[in-house]
Write a structure and sequence with these properties.
The structure is a single chain. The chain is built from three helices and 24 strands. By secondary structure, the protein is mostly beta strands. The strands form three sheets. The chain has a 19-stranded mixed beta sheet that branches. The protein has a three-stranded mixed beta sheet with strand order 21-24-23, with helices on one face. The longest helix is centred in the last third of the chain and has 12 residues. The relative contact order is 0.10.
């Protein structure tokens, strides 16, 4: 399974590998302490500065990491994702940029809205908890609200969300839907659990690819539409997950020499 690891690109381009550090200071080329890295969490230091610098944290496939931004906002970053953030927030808005998936627990500041920009939309909040899933290779973008209130800005429209609602945009035709959902299905990953309900195998294997850093192929294309429901700890091995899938449906798996996992009908 994946582990806590990431790469931090500092202002100026230097890169630092993050993994199981204990109280290490990370310093920029200007000599400023950007953050402390300790036990799976990067704490960005708040400081007064006329010069705003930016850092980017990249989490590879098979990884995850947590960041506490300079305003106290907590961000859990999922595998195959990256977050660009300022070393300090200045001006009217607190803006970060996301590619991939992250769970945000935003520190409330009514005078300075928090904005998450993706390649497709922007999510505007004051203080709340929500999940944004915006991978480049997914067919959709989703924002799922756990508590508080957010506004999703897409195109020339604003879509307000209330707790338990999700904004979903299909990239193929730009179709938008706001719907009630079980939020636990979309945020449990940051608690170390896979939860899925009627999820097509095509979609679920993508999540497994990112977490276990493997590659799936289908020997029979019809298997892509086979749906699963259940839950499993993300700490379990890939062998456990394959056995779970095989016992709930008529599937066989062949792990090939290059790490590719071929899926067959039983």
């Amino acid at each position: 399974p994946g582990t806590f690891r990431a790469e931090l690109e500092l202002p100026g381009g230097d890169r630092v590998f993050l993994q199981d550090a204990r109280g290490r200071e990370i310093v920029t080329k200007r000599g400023n302490v950007l953050a402390n890295d300790t036990t799976h969490t990067l704490f960005v230091q708040e400081r007064d500065s006329a010069v705003v610098e930016y850092g980017t944290i990249r989490v590879p496939a098979g990884g995850e990491y947590r960041v506490v931004l300079s305003d106290g906002t907590g961000v859990w970053i999922n595998a195959g994702s990256e977050l660009k953030f300022p070393t300090s927030f200045t001006g009217k808005d607190r803006v970060v940029e996301l590619r991939g998936e992250a769970y945000f627990d935003v520190t409330r500041d009514a005078e300075h809205p928090f904005i998450v920009r993706t390649g497709q939309s922007a999510v505007r909040v004051l203080g709340t908890a929500f999940n944004v899933c915006s991978y480049d290779d997914d067919a959709f973008e989703q924002t799922t609200l756990v508590r508080g209130k957010v506004e999703v800005l897409y195109g020339d429209r604003v879509y307000p969300l209330h707790p338990g609602e999700q904004f979903e945009m299909q990239k193929k035709d730009a179709r938008v839907e706001v719907k009630k959902v079980d939020t636990g299905l979309y945020v449990s990953w940051q608690e170390g659990v896979f939860r899925f309900r009627d999820m097509p195998l095509d979609e679920f294997t993508v999540k497994l690819q990112r977490w276990y850093d493997v590659n799936f192929k289908f020997a029979d294309e019809s298997l892509r539409d086979v749906c699963f429901s259940g839950a499993a700890l993300r700490s379990k091995s890939i062998d456990f997950m394959l056995e779970l899938l095989a016992t709930t449906q008529s599937l066989n798996f062949d792990i090939q020499g290059d790490g590719t996992i071929m899926i067959y009908k039983k």
